Amino acid sequence: RAYPVAAARRARPSRAIGVLRSRGAVSEAVSGAMSSSLTAARVASAASAGPSAVHRRRALRAQAPRDRDVKSRAATAPATAPVADEPGTAPGGTRHPTQGPFAGTQLDSSKTIEELQPFYNGYRSGYRSVPPSDETFGYIDESAIEGEIPTELLGTLLRNGPAYFEREGDDLAKRYLDGDGMVTSVAFKDGKAFFRNKFVQTECFIAEQKAGKYLEPSIFTADDPRKPIWWHRTAVDMVGIDRGFTGDPQMKHNGAYNVMNWGGSLVAVDYAKPYELDPDNLDTIGHGASELSSTKHTSHYRVMAEKDGSSRLVTMLNNINWRNHTTTSNFCEFDEQGKKVSDRTFTFPAAYVHDMIVTDDYYVLFDCPVRMHLKNTFINYPQGKTSLSESIAEDTSRKPMFRLFPRHDGVEEKVISTDKFCFSYHHVNGWQEGDKLIFDTTTWPKFTLYFLDIVDADGKVFWPKMSFTRFVLDLKTGACDAFDLDNHPCEYPAVAPCATGRPYRHAYLCTSAHAAADNDEVSGPIHQLTKVSMKNTDPYCKEVEVQHYYPGDTRFCMEPLFIPRSQETSGVHGSGGDGEDDGWLIGMVNNAGSTTDVIIIDCKDFASGPVATLHLPRYVPMGVHGSFSAEYICGPDDES
Questions:
Q1: Which terminal residue of the chain has fewer beta carbons within 10 Å of its beta carbon, N or C?
Q2: How does pLDDT run across 224-267, given as a tens digit for each residue?
Q3: Rounded to the nearest 10 degrees, how much is the dihedral formed by the CA atoms of 171, 274, 267, 257?
Q4: Is residue 632 packed enough to be buried (19+ CB in 10 Å), middle (13-18) or exposed (0-12)?
Q5: Distance (Å, rounded) from C-alpha 452 to C-alpha 466?
Q6: Sheet with 284-286, edge to edge strand ranges
Q7: pTM of the prediction?
Q8: CA–CA separation, 274 vs 276, rounded Å?
């Protein structure tokens, strides 16, 4: 049912909310792709877009196994690849490649591409639409918990992601990332867990619920509810006859990419438009109810420890305008009471940026080399053959660049390029050390705004190809060194709060667990959780230890979050060092599109697997991003 938007937020005490860093949204570059004049360029051909996943997802739903696979394994990798008894074979018969894309990994390469199809199918079945009637709340019963929730774990897991993208009676099916956002919370206290899930009541969601059909266009879906498509996409989106001929097409806000709790404000966000939520019950209050929900920003942010002992939430917003070939980036900082204390805007040549690293002196962006896809923009998009997101493509004529923008007056803006041609969406961490700036991220060999190598992985056209890569930037000479820290295909990274913007040793990622026996270029879907531990914090350290938690053949891990056991060791102002990994890794696991679990892993004993597994009362689709609040919110109605 459609919940009414609250007229005003109930009074709550202003206090700082501890939040872990999260990962961000997916649509910042393309909202301005149609701003270019129709006569700006000649139509040219370019790479074709990937296939739609909607119909395949529906077919896979019937094939997906419904029984939970409770088998799991945890493995610890040596610092380097083990010496094989025979060439290409490790002890136990598992083949460890010695060259190629997966050198030194522990990928299981015992299955062919065809034999890996059940794994791909199982992963893709996790993108199943759920209706608003699935909303519920209540304690998770003890019978649904394996192991024990740590009694010292206090706070709330917050997750957001597209959940409603196939409406009954509507032939138009949205692509996954265009679904209406559903916020899920799991509040922990005294060894118990309280579950809530509720859809974000955006203006579009309320109107479409009332109409019983889709009304607004979305950024990743080629089909369009507005008819005739060609008129709306040329006259409205491209020319802007309803907006003073300004272009800049307006897409649906779905409130679906992240949720954060900071300074007394609980906010769900998509691209640019945050929505305030009631921290008692997740009811939507609306856009503009606080400084945080009034400030336009994406779902990417960082929580920084300041030298004066305070903490700041740093947000970002990027807009690309192909009319004048510029990108504008805005960075805002909020103190612990939720007050905006810094607001800086910078403009540079048109580029796609997705996430950011924040250091003591800089906001650092990875400038992905992209260009306008002319054929898709001026021919395919107006005909409804491609989506707005497919109006940009990779540009192989220039190098990727790091753009360093000053956080403070007196710091010089810098641009440093890299010879490593790649794309990067979600960054791990970064810090300054003397004249060096270290930038750790997950790198992709090609541009795919819809993350097709993850969402549509099939081992034939798409499969994960990412690496955990370190860039060392020389702030004096402008030189840039790049090397891979780990070659397990990886995404959705996390670090401890004490590590953000500082030297660190431990990173946590979702990774592939399989490689094809008949093609050593092909990996399986994103599957397991991995802890990568550097031997030391030296910027050029290449010696790492890798540990994995494999949840089972039909169970697939989502983005993890690190929860400090003690604020003194691994919290935002924690001492780090040997205490950097003193905490829990918490995340959701999708059981082949049927059910969803929450797992809690002791990071000090990662290879032992979860200390607790919670079987949730509702299915939660593969999510996008989330955060952890140190405050107990969204709990029972009789508790504050």
A1: N
A2: 999 999 999 999 998 888 776 666 778 899 999 999 999 999 99
A3: 50
A4: middle
A5: 12
A6: 258-262, 265-269, 274-277, 284-286
A7: 0.86
A8: 7
